[in-house]
Each structure stands twice: as C-alpha cells, then as structure tokens.
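Field log, afternoon session.

UNIT: design team B
ACTIVITY: writing a sequence onto a fixed backbone
BACKBONE:
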C-alpha cells in the first residue's frame, strides 16, 4: 500500500496548548497505531510544544509545525526555520494557512518559498488554500483556489508524495459549517487537475486534504468523498477523544 492509498489525518492545534496538553498527544499516539494500515497521523502543536510532543508521540504519530520561515537562519525575530523543525524531529509543516495568509499578509510567492525551504530539510509541507464566502457566492472559488495552488507550490518535486495540499474554505474554519460533499469533490477534482498540469503524473501522488469543521460526526462522509485523501482538523484535534473519533471513521 502506498502512502497515497492511506488517508493523512492531520491535527492543527493553532495557538492552543501548554505542556499539560501533551497528555492528549500521548493518548492519540497510544491508539493510532491500530489504524496504521489505513492512515498516516500527524499533530502540529504550537512551536513551544514541538520537542515535548515529539518525546511522547512514539513511532505511530508524526509531529509537525504550523509555519516556517523560508530562510534557514538569520535576523528574523520570532520566526522558526524548517531546519529547526527538522532538528526537533518534526516531519511536516503547514504552510499558507488562511490565518497566516490573512493575519501575516503571506502571498502565494511567500508560501511557495516556505514550502521549498521545508523540502530542502526533508520536511513535507502541507500547502493550504481556500476561498472566502464572498468568492464562493460569486462563483469564483474554483478559479481562485486553483490559482493559489498553482502559485504556492514548488516549481519542481523530486519524488512522489513530497507535498500535500489542504483545501480549507475560509467560511468553514471554526464555524461548524462544512462544504457539501459535492462541492468538496468538485474542488478536489479541480485541484487534482492543477497538480497534474503542473507536475505531470506525480500530481496524482499528492494528497489533497479537506479542512474546515471536521469532527467525528461528519468525518465518515468527508473522508469518503471523491478525491479526499485526508483531513486537516483544527478544533477537534485538541482532544484525543475527538481526534480519535475522526480516525475511527477511516
Ligand atoms: O487547520 C485547520 C483548519 O483551519 C480547520 O479548523 P477547524 O477544524 O477548527 O474548523
């Protein structure tokens, strides 16, 4: 079974969690091994918890970061580099989340540079994209999101499955609203075409995750929607019980 045949279930803790929360990661790590034939599992805690998370995560659970700088080191106060993430045992990094695109003015070009920096350190970037409600209502969602991904992905990939994409409609993040299965399938199909146009057959090996209010109650439908290769989970990844409820839907 290739990695692509498994679903990638990733948790993004955003700016949540102090050391006491590491027990949730320990509990997740203790259980996800039971689903190893169906999935790859990842938690991205805040940078302050990366080392602690890696220490309790064991072999069945990957640990990743929520952002990285495009440079390896330098005078960038408050930033962390992909090299630093790799040094702590992180194997993934989320780049271009809408909260960073919006709150930190990150352009597609900046996101692409971050993804390339991650690849240089052997870390897999999860490159995020997604439209606003206004763009969806105007019928601009597919054009906008596919252009985001055409422009935010590295120029070249050197191996299969080297990056992942996360489609997260901004209006579905933290709102309890999810895109319909038909809308998700339509967007993922358009993203697949964009990836194949850019990377040839290798574009078929890139996981496309869905994110936006994924929880145990809707995970079964979303994870079994056409061309959905996994989920990027925010709020429901903070507690082991709800993250494992999503994993159980695989
Ligand atoms: O990165 C995760 C997403 O922003 C989704 O967050 P949410 O599951 O809390 O809606």
């Amino acid at each position: 079974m290739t990695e692509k045949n498994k679903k990638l279930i990733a948790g993004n803790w955003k700016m949540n969690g102090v050391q006491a929360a590491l027990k949730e990661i320990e509990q997740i790590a203790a259980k996800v091994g039971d689903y190893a034939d169906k999935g790859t599992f990842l938690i991205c805690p805040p940078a302050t918890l990366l080392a602690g998370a890696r220490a309790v995560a064991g072999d069945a659970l990957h640990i990743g970061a929520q952002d990285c700088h495009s440079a390896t080191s330098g005078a960038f106060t408050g930033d962390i580099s992909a090299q630093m993430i790799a040094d702590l045992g992180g194997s993934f990094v989320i780049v271009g989340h809408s909260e960073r695109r919006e709150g930190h003015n990150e352009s597609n070009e900046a996101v692409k540079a971050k993804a390339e920096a991650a690849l240089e350190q052997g870390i897999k970037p999860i490159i995020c994209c997604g439209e606003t409600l206004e763009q969806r209502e105007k019928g601009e969602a597919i054009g906008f999101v596919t252009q985001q991904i055409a422009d935010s992905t590295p120029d070249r990939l050197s191996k299969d499955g080297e990056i992942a994409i996360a489609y997260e409609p901004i209006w579905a993040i933290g709102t309890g609203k999810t895109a319909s299965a038909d809308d998700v399938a339509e967007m993922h199909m358009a993203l697949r075409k964009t990836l194949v146009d850019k990377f040839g057959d290798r574009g078929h090996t890139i996981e496309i995750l869905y994110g936006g209010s994924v929880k145990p109650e809707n995970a079964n439908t979303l994870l079994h929607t056409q061309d959905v290769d996994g989920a990027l989970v925010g709020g429901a990844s903070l507690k082991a019980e709800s993250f494992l409820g999503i994993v159980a839907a695989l």
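LOG NOTE: The chain has one domain: 3-247.
NEXT ACTIVITY: expression trials, pending approval
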